[in-house]
Amino acid sequence: MIMQQELAYCPTAINNAYLANIDLVKKIAKVVHERKIKNITIIGRGSSDNAGLCFKYITEIIAGIPVGTAHPSVTTMYSAEVDYDNHLVIAISQSGRSIDTLAVLDNAKKHNALTVAVTNDINSPLAKKAKYHLFLNAGEEIALGATKTFAAELTVLYMLAAAISNKPAYMEQIKNMPAKVQEILDLTPSIRRLAYALKDKKEFIVLSRGSMQGVGKELALKFNQLCYCYSQFYSITDFMHGPIAMLDEGVNVILLAPHGECIDNYIDISGRTNLVGANLYVLSDTKEILNYAEEGVQMPISDFLTSTFTYSVAVHLLSMYVAVEKGYDPDNPRNLEKVIITK
């Protein structure tokens, strides 16, 4: 499978993205500080939007700068002029060819924003339009589900966050990420066992919290896209404010639960899920949580930054193997094209 090959390439993709952008992110960070920019706005669709959500959390945690999301229809449908004066506006797109993303970037440039494009194509309209271009350098991605480009997006976005924060330890952590991701690829047999346990399931609630929300959304997206399963992600705290009413016997729940700041929430929801007789499937490094699960994957210990890399590769592997177990081709999901142009 092509998707399998591209997942195996993720450690190399991370390394290549790091080497291609280490000087540029420092240059952009210098401009951010010189202009005293205090607001960041991101724009992306699909997996790129999920990578942007991960970036939002990491940037706010380590750099203390608020990160918001632009909604393209404000520009493309309502023709509104949004004032991005002295914002850092980051447009994220694997292809760099989405019309709506480009429209937001155009509007931002007109209003004195500092603009950055994140793409895998140096000749794309988005790359040429922005003031700076962070090149993913991941090589051509052929499988329709984004995998190595998602890993590369996390890499360059986190590098930018680390540079803006002026905390070199985070940059060093990103540099060492290929080895962490390789540990996940080595867990393939465990992930395949979980996929086999899910092969006859058709609907899923996906739960996590904090910096893992972008990864949870990515899992739900990939299950929709590759496995044709209805999947919905919720932050655990949002889930408690209403959707928990859906929790019942036989409901399928996938919990992404790295040890760290949110561990008490993960343990609590595991117990609640178990109590009502729902089916709990877990990716976690915490034995207490794994003990609640019908089936689980023992993940390596990680922190709030590393977990977004490692768990995203794990959920991509899981989605691919669930699709295979269901008899679908994960390289070519129905009704989709690699480059999706929306207005």
Question: Any overview of this molecule?
Answer:
With 343 residues, this protein is α/β, with parallel strands linked by helices. It folds into 2 domains: 2-175, Glucose-6-phosphate isomerase like protein, domain 1 (Rossmann fold); 182-325, Rossmann fold (3-Layer(aba) Sandwich), CATH 3.40.50.10490. 50% of the residues lie in helices and 15% in strands. It is built from 15 helices and 10 strands. The protein has helices at residues 2-8, 10-34, 47-62, 73-76, 99-110, 125-129, 148-165, 168-175, 177-185, 188-198, 213-227, 236-240, 263-276, 287-290, 306-325; strands at residues 40-44, 67-69, 88-92, 114-119, 132-135, 203-208, 230-235, 252-257, 279-284, 295-298. A 5-stranded parallel β-sheet has the order 2-1-3-4-5, sandwiched between helices. Helix 2 (10-34) packs antiparallel against helix 9 (177-185), helix 3 packs antiparallel against helix 11 (213-227) and helix 11 (213-227) runs parallel beside helix 15 (306-325). The two termini are 32 Å apart. The model has no long low-confidence stretch (mean pLDDT 95).
